[in-house]
Description:
By secondary structure, the chain is an alpha/beta fold. The chain has 13 helices and seven strands. It is elongated and about 90 Å long.
Amino acid sequence: MGYNNENYRRIRAAYKTKYLKAYEEAERRTAELHTKSAEVAEIDRQLRSTGAEIAMAALGTGADYRSRLAAVEARNLELQKKRSELLQKMGYPADYTKPPYECELCRDSGFVDTKMCECMRRELVLAAFASSGLGELMRSQSFDSFSLEYYNGEDRMMMERNLELLKAYAEGFDAHADSLILCGATGLGKTHLSTAVARRVIERGFDVYYTGAIQMFSDFEFAKFGSGTGEHLADPARYVDCDLLILDDLGTEVTNQFTNSCLYMILDNRINLRRPTIINTNLTGKEIKARYTDRIASRILGTFKPLLFAGTDVRRQKLTNK
């Protein structure tokens, strides 16, 4: 399991300075109070002194060190109480000079002891959604939002099976997960369910990249020639390095020697590195053999586990029922 390296470095760097900002704000607030109240400034001076006394007393020995420690601690508590009362009289909350951490659990360090804090994990997940290529799909397409009401008879049974298989795949995903090829006509739920897989796998802490075939080949074209058919979105290394690559609409691209070479390189590298891939396509196995080179077809048909999608175009049904 591994978060996207770029996201991790960026967020880790942000956490390294976040807690310092909280301390700086606490210092600013303390200075503000001191300019308004000499009494608060004197109490803070005494608190610093009693803090040192507590530390010295705790290290002491002898029969009376416990009573000395208790006396210093009692004086410290009395000063803190008096300080709180003064702040409230001045119109400030009692904890005004406490560092305003965004997360009290980790104090904005990102870690609790040696374990990553949930706040940092949440930041990484949100960053992973942003860099996954899912875009707006993530907002609406999940396992919970996938409806079987548009499928009937044997088609519904097949889609129920696909839904449960893909849920289990997402929950159990690891570096040894199968590569899948989702096959079927347009509008049967391939994009929806593969997006749902991506969403859950990202939530579990893996690096997922979701892209369309046309966009992927455009990125390779830009990297090689400095030009492409669309906006350049990703470094080609992204397609090999991510934990899970989801390639949507394979077969919609213009097939030529260059695209065949790129596709073979990606498939071969990911298979050799044991990095799972999900392919969505409208092509049948026979059409894959006819369209791509033998080396590509053998890797797709011999390595990827097929899931067949059946039914009537769901998007068309939704439009008809409006």
